[in-house]
Design goal:
It contains five helices and 13 strands. By secondary structure, it is α+β, with helices and mostly antiparallel strands. It has a domain of 61 residues. The N terminus and C terminus are likely disordered. It binds iron/sulfur cluster (SF4) (2 copies). One iron/sulfur cluster binds next to loops.
Length: 172
């Protein structure tokens, strides 16, 4: 069950609703806000785009050349062993402000700017497409499914954060 409050789309976010989780550059929220991508490509630049088993299969012939290994620190934070390759700090699939292989993009990109676990809702603090005055009208279950591989690490990270343990940074 997703921990989200259901309110009118006219309601506004309050300080109580949203809490920064600095070590993962995301905001912990009690609801999923409205979102419309502005195609700014910020989430495709300077980020760690985690890849799990299904992502690697979907990438097919691009899986070797367009991905690279995670560092030990990144593995510890995400649970993924590979990530999208970055060239000049941009994802190798980024062309202009568009994904050149949109149908092949990993689950990390499909759920962005959200991570939804059974215990937590997070939204990327760097995404300008989020509208905190509205509510998400998409499928909570789909976000939950797309987040399931990274969910254990995220729940651990938030547990550590709440416990006052200093974490390291990873991009959402
Ligand atoms: S950062 Fe947000 S608004 Fe910009 S491209 Fe990514 S999802 Fe879209
Ligand atoms: S795979 Fe596509 S959507 Fe994902 S980071 Fe790369 S360019 Fe952006």
């Amino acid at each position: 069950m997703v921990k989200a409050t259901r309110r009118s789309s006219r309601d506004h976010a309050t300080v109580k609703d949203v809490e920064p989780v600095p070590q993962i550059e995301m905001l912990l929220s009690c609801y999923i806000p409205a979102f419309e991508c502005t195609l700014c490509a910020r989430c495709c630049t300077g980020k760690v785009i985690a890849l799990f088993g299904g992502d690697i299969i979907r990438l097919g012939k691009y899986a070797e050349a367009c991905t690279e290994p995670m560092s030990e620190e990144e593995i510890a934070l995400t649970g993924a062993e590979r990530k999208m390759k970055m060239v000049d700090d941009a994802c190798v699939f980024l062309e202009g402000s568009r994904c050149s292989h949109y149908d092949l993009r990993p689950d990390t990109c499909r759920r962005h700017p959200f991570i939804v676990t059974k215990r937590h809702i997070l939204a990327a603090s760097t995404c300008k497409g989020i509208d905190w005055t509205g509510r998400w009208h998409g499928s909570d279950g789909e976000l939950l499914r797309l987040s399931e591989k990274i969910a254990p690490k995220i729940d651990d990270c938030i547990g550590a954060f709440r416990g006052g343990i200093k974490g390291r940074r990873v991009s959402g």
